[in-house]
């Protein structure tokens, strides 16, 4: 837990210094500076080293190259990603504070009755980034080797089995909720501030089951440090070609695919959004990003989705898709 706080502290120190310099310059000349004239904060809602953070850092490094300014990742943790989204919704709409977030942008309105922002109207959209499959994992010594064995073990030991996630609004929570519904159980869930600490707990045997993205799980799967029960996508994935989908394992219609978008506060000038979108598109063609995403099992979205309109229409469709599912499941964060 200390690591993410340290990351925020470092970023804030950088901005405090930059802010002091900016204050010394009269407002008009500062406003005339070509964008970007100072570092940009990319706010990440989950712990450093986790799946969202890994995608963010790769893309931020590449965006820095084409923008000619550092894009500094700032981890702001809490409440399944809603702390970060609320922070960016209220930030100055000047292009110096942007957010990278996943499906949580679409699920939070149904989970939180007092959400302090409106995903569709409190942001300017930059574009979608990459889609990531999830994997259903167990601790290495769980006495179940296949999905059917896991399901029967959980059904027989419901009161003993727990499920880790990254809080209400995280995709790990969404995946875990759908899994529990599909097999008719109600497990104790243990929320962390990201799946990086949740994975540490799984590796240490303190939690039993975790649903998480390949961007974090592949190395642990390959090292056989966890048990793998299936992938959450509708079809098998290139990174794990011999692993069945949860559908193949008997969970009818099961599908969770994690998508990522980059947002700025509402009212960010169109010229700034254009620069950010251009930098995003360039980043997603950068050979270092392409190779990193491939290694992590992530799929870069087509160029028409790497756009403000591509993200906005997708977010609207995802809100429409998940709100009734979450309401029917009766899950509430507050
Ligand atoms: N994978 C996490 C989630 O469940 C987020 C993270 O830690 O990056 O949403």
Can you give a write-up of this model?
With 334 residues, the protein is an alpha/beta fold. It has two domains: 2-132 and 258-329, 3-Layer(aba) Sandwich (D-Maltodextrin-Binding Protein, domain 2), CATH 3.40.190; 133-231, D-Maltodextrin-Binding Protein, domain 2, CATH 3.40.190.10. 44% of the residues lie in helices and 19% in strands. The protein contains twelve helices and ten strands. Strands 1, 2, 3, 4, 5, 6, 7, 8, 9 and 10 form a ten-stranded mixed beta sheet that branches. The radius of gyration is 20 Å and the shape is globular. Residues 1-30 have low confidence and may be disordered.
Layout of helices and strands, plus pairs?
Layout: H1 2-24, H2 27-32, E1 40-44, H3 51-67, E2 71-75, H4 82-89, E3 97-101, H5 104-111, E4 123-139, H6 147-156, E5 162-165, H7 171-183, E6 188-191, H8 195-203, E7 209-213, H9 214-222, E8 226-231, E9 257-265, H10 270-283, H11 287-295, E10 299-300, H12 308-329
Parallel strand pairs: 1-2, 1-3, 5-6, 5-7
Antiparallel strand pairs: 3-9, 4-7, 4-8, 4-9, 4-10
Bound molecules: aspartic acid (ASP).
Characteristics:
BUG, binds aspartic acid, 19% strand, signal, globular, alpha/beta, Bug_dom1, single chain, 12 helices, 334 residues, D-Maltodextrin-Binding Protein, domain 2, 10-stranded mixed beta sheet
Summarize the structure.
With 334 residues, the chain is an alpha/beta fold. The chain is built from twelve helices and ten strands.
């Amino acid at each position: 837990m200390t690591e993410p706080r340290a990351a925020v502290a470092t970023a804030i120190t950088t901005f405090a210094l930059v802010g002091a310099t900016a204050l010394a310059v009269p407002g008009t000349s500062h406003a005339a500076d070509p964008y970007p004239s100072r570092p940009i904060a990319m706010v990440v809602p989950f712990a450093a080293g986790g799946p969202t953070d890994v995608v963010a850092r790769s893309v931020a490094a590449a965006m820095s190259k084409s923008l000619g300014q550092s894009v500094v990742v700032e981890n702001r943790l809490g409440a399944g990603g809603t702390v970060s989204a609320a922070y960016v919704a209220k930030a100055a709409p000047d292009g110096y504070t942007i957010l990278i977030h996943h499906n949580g942008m679409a699920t939070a309105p149904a989970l939180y009755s007092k959400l302090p922002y409106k995903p569709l109207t409190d942001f300017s959209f930059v574009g979608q980034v990459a889609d990531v499959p999830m994997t259903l994992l167990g601790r290495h010594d769980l006495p179940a080797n296949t999905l059917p064995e896991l399901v029967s073990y959980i059904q027989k030991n419901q009161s003993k089995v727990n499920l880790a996630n990254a809080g209400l609004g995280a995709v790990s929570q969404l995946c875990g909720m759908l899994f529990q519904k599909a097999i008719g159980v109600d497990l104790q869930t243990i929320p962390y501030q990201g799946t990086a600490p949740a994975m540490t707990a799984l590796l240490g045997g303190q939690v039993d089951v975790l649903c998480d993205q390949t961007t974090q799980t592949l190395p642990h799967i390959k090292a056989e440090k966890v048990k793998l029960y299936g992938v959450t996508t509708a079809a098998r994935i290139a990174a794990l070609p011999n692993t069945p989908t949860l559908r193949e394992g008997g969970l009818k219609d099961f599908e969770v695919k994690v998508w990522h978008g980059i947002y700025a506060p509402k009212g960010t000038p169109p010229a700034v959004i254009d620069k950010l979108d251009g930098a995003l598109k360039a980043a997603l063609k950068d050979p270092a990003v392409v190779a990193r995403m491939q290694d992590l099992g992530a799929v870069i979205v087509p160029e028409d989705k790497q756009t403000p309109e591509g993200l906005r229409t997708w977010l609207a469709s995802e809100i429409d898709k998940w709100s009734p599912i979450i309401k029917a499941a009766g899950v509430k964060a507050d």
